[in-house]
Amino acid sequence: MDLTPLDIRNQKFSGKKLGGLDPDEVQAFLNQVATTFENLLVERADLLKTINNDKKTVEDYRRLEKSLTEAVYTVQRALDEIKAKAHNEAESIIAEAKVRAEREVDAIKSQASDLHAEIDRLKQIRVGYFIKLRNLMRTQEDLLNSLENEG
């Protein structure tokens, strides 16, 4: 059975006729012990209350920690997905750019080839005109020579 401050205060001692204890001193001491004991019980109750509150706080922090850990994991997973998607998009853009560049290079090569062919054709026409002009000039020279010799 637990001893309470009230038990200590109500404790009675039997008095001895010869050499016994002074009941007032015993009672004063018991009152002092009871007060100290009562204070200890109040302090113990306060400490238990604090411990229970602290346990609740710790549990709240654990739940918060778990939520934050899950949030961090979710954010990390989302970042990884975004990073992978961005990497894939970058590769796709680069591949498209390479294809476009190759097409443009092929188109420019084709235009250059067409221009070279046109230049060659124009050179041939020029040579043909020079040949015709020389022939015309020879014919005119021959005509002038023949007219000069006649007269």
What does the model show?
This protein has helices spanning 5-10, 23-150. It is mostly helical. The chain has one domain (5-9, 21-150). The chain is rod-shaped and about 195 Å long. The N and C termini lie far apart (168 Å).
* N-to-C SSE string, H for helix and E for strand: HH
Question: How many domains make up the 3D coordinates?
Answer: 1
Helix content estimate: over 70%
* Radius of gyration, taken over Cα atoms and rounded to an integer in Å: 59 Å
> Which term fits the overall shape?
rod-shaped
Distance between the termini: 168 Å
Count of DSSP-assigned helices: 2
Number of DSSP E strands: 0
Q: Helices, strands, pairings?
A:
Elements: H1 5-10, H2 23-150
Write a brief caption for the model.
With 151 residues, this protein is mostly helical. It has helices at 5-10, 23-150. It has one domain.
